[in-house]
Amino acid sequence: MTVPGAAHAAPCLALDIGGTKAEAAVVTREGILLRRARIDVKESGDRLFARIAELLERVRAGDDVTSLGVACAGPMSAGGASVSPLNIPGWRDFPLREELRRATGLAVDVDGDVRALALAEGTFGAARGVSNYASLVVSTGVGGALVMDGRLVKGDSGNAGHIGHLNVVPQGRRCSCGARGCLEAEASGWAIAETTGQSPEFADEATRRRTAVLVGRAIGTLASVLDFNHCYIAGSVALGFGDEFFATAWASARELATMVYSRSLEVRRSGLGADGPLLGAACVAWQAFP
C-alpha cells in the first residue's frame, strides 16, 4: 500500500501527539524529516495547545507548506474533529482539527496515532507493496489498525482496528475500556507492570512468552476473519522483548490461522524506526490532501 499522491506531494507539516510528548517536523515526500522539535505534554499543563501552536510555528520556519497531518492518541470522533486522549485529561472532546486550522491557516487532517503508523508502514516501511495487513503497537497500551484492499479501514466513527480490545482471556483482567480479558488488559506494558510489580523490561521469560502468545492469538483470530496474511508490530514491549517475542507470536498466530487462505500468515517487525509516528502524521496529510 502507498498513500495516494504521496509520491508527488509537496512537503507537509507533521505533528504527533502522545501522552508524554508532542513532536513536529516538516516532512518531504521522500520521507526526510526537517527541523523536528518536541515539547513535554505533562509539563505543558493547561498551556498544551498554545505550546503546540508555538512548536508548529517554530518548526515551520516559513517553509511553503500547505497542509498539516496529525497523529493523535485517542479516542476521537471521525476525522479528529474532537479528541479525548486518555493520557491528556485536560482534553475531553477537544476540537483539535478546527483549533489547528485557526492557529496555522493550513489544511488540517487528524487520525489516530496507530492508524497513522499503518499508513506509514505501507508507504515507507515493511508493508510497501502489500494491500492487506494489520499494524499493531505493543507498548504501554496495545493499539492497532487495518489496511484492506489498499485502504485504511475506518469504521462508523473512524476508530476501526482496535486490536487491543480483542478478547484473548475470557473473564480475564479488567481493561481500561471496561471489558475483561482484552489483549491490552493482558499483554500491554501497564498490564505487565500491574501483574508483575515491575517494568516490562525486567519481565521474566514466562511473562514474555505469555505476552507473545496472547498477541499471536489475537492476530491469528483476526487473520482468519478478515483474510490478511501480514502483520507488522512496533512498540517498546514487542521490540524490547526481541526476536523470541516475534517467533513466539508468529507461531501462536499460525495455530489459529488455519483457514486455507490464512495459513501463510506472517508476523514481522515494523519496518519503521523512531521516525514512524511523524511519517505517519505526514501520510495522514497526504491522504487527505493529495
Descriptive tags:
five-stranded mixed β-sheet, 290 residues, alpha/beta, Nucleotidyltransferase, domain 5, single chain
Question: Would you give an account of this structure?
Answer:
The protein is α/β, with parallel strands linked by helices. The chain folds into 2 domains: 6-115 and 275-288, ATPase, nucleotide binding domain (Nucleotidyltransferase, domain 5), CATH 3.30.420.40; 129-269, Nucleotidyltransferase, domain 5. It is 37% helix and 20% strand. It is built from 10 helices and 10 strands. It has helices spanning 41-44, 48-60, 96-104, 113-124, 183-187, 189-196, 205-226, 236-241, 243-256, 276-288, and strands at 12-17, 21-27, 33-40, 67-72, 107-112, 133-138, 142-148, 151-152, 230-234, 266-269. The strands form 2 sheets. Strands 3-2-1-4-5 form a 5-stranded mixed sheet. Strand 2 and strand 3 form a beta hairpin. The model has no long low-confidence stretch (mean pLDDT 93).
Short synopsis of the structure:
This protein is α/β, with parallel strands linked by helices. Helices cover 37% and strands 20% of the residues.
Please write out the topology.
Layout: E1 12-17, E2 21-27, E3 33-40, H1 41-44, H2 48-60, E4 67-72, H3 96-104, E5 107-112, H4 113-124, E6 133-138, E7 142-148, E8 151-152, H5 183-187, H6 189-196, H7 205-226, E9 230-234, H8 236-241, H9 243-256, E10 266-269, H10 276-288
Parallel strand pairs: 1-4, 4-5, 6-9, 9-10
Antiparallel strand pairs: 1-2, 2-3, 6-7, 7-8
Helix pairs in contact: 4-10, 7-9
